[in-house]
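Lay summary. Proteins are chains of building blocks that fold into shapes, and those shapes determine what they do. In this project we predict the shape from the chain. Here is one chain we studied, written as its sequence of building blocks.
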Amino acid sequence: MKNLFELYCIDVLVNDVKTNSKEVFLNDAFVCIKGVKVDRHKYIDEAIKRGASFLIVSKGKKYSIPYVKVRNTNKELVNILSNVYNNAKNIGIIAITGTDGKTTTASIIRDIIGNDLCGYIGTNGIKGKYFNNSSENTTPAIEYNYKYLDKFAKEGLKYVAIEASSEGMLHKRLEGFKFKIGILTNFTEDHLNVHKTLKNYLKCKKKVFHNIDKDGTAILNKDDPFYKQFRKSCTCNVMTYGKNKYSTLRIMDYELFSNKTKITYMYKKNIFVIESPLVGEFNVYNLSAAILALLSLDYNLSDIRKRILNIKVPYGRCEFLDYKTEYKIFLDYAHTVNGIKSVLTYLNNIKKRKIITVIGSAGGREKEKRPSMGKVAQNLSDIVIYTMDDPRYENTLDIINEMVDESKRNYFIEIDRKKAIYMALNIAEKNDIVAILGKGRDNYMAILDKKILYSDIIVLDDYFKK
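And here is the predicted shape, written in a compact code that computers can read:
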């Protein structure tokens, strides 16, 4: 427990810091932050009933437990977090941002450095040396980031690879942290339902590079159309990767296979070849960013090359599933226009016959991208089966109708996702590829305000048990 006397001259012990009253336990501090829609001052009584021992407020006169009154509770939240979880500052943060590739790049970095030295926070959960927790958001709430980094430090970890989403930066979930490394994977239009304009979306991504320590390193995709705009945001050392001849790590050539990729690089005028267990051109870029991150941490190139052989394919990302079929089953989380284009382009490069794609689009998200998603899917697939994908409050058929490219007749509509996957498997013949996109390894389907138990993997397991 932490005594807050040094911070507020109040002799009170706190166990944890919370901003959600429903998560408060005995001896927690409750900070009444103000969000876009919710003012947590409304939940003070609930927090006290659940055992809070201390309050941080910006209004009100008297409370039944110790409290401190400040002008801005959101800013004060960072102050108390950095004091209660004072070990968090001892972790070197590798922040990865971009429209696509954050999860894979973060996972690659952790695999190369090793689980005994590097933690992970992102879409696939929170992973320390001795624990693995789930996470509702790609970038968790700020109090969780402080708490877990503090825990990582106590476990003896030196680094953490964090997925820094645009929403995470918008809502200041990494406020108060300075990054050792900031990585840009790519930048394409997405999340306009949240940011409203591309300019706002870009601004949130750039925040990652504003927060890099002056002695840290920015790692940028030099082939990305927005490279120069991100470059202007950097006041630290900058390293670049890509096919561009002026890249720090230049991608000279690569060979794509169904189970690996051979990549030829140039670094400091030296040419070398790396064999990666990851597949697709997009993973050539993700791996390149990871290699530069390790080089910036003074890892030896020959050691990096050996460690790359042990990379694990992240669950739900470019997974070929082995059900002993004559056709291939491919699972991927791709849900952006660029993501869908990337994986289907790769599959076209290795296909022997047809590509049968199962795809939908999430409800309550950017509607404007749906026609482009459908057009890419139909152009790069022989058959497309449109189906449900986290419809939330929207009607699934309405979502699908916004996706369908009626200029091509290579599609079916099956709202029930399980039936859609079964349809694809029943159609598939020898040497075909069934691409199931959008959900990856998710274990739920978001319908209305609930998360219903659902998994593409369970659907596939049930099918092959028949």
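What the prediction tells us: Residues 281-296 form the longest helix (16 residues).
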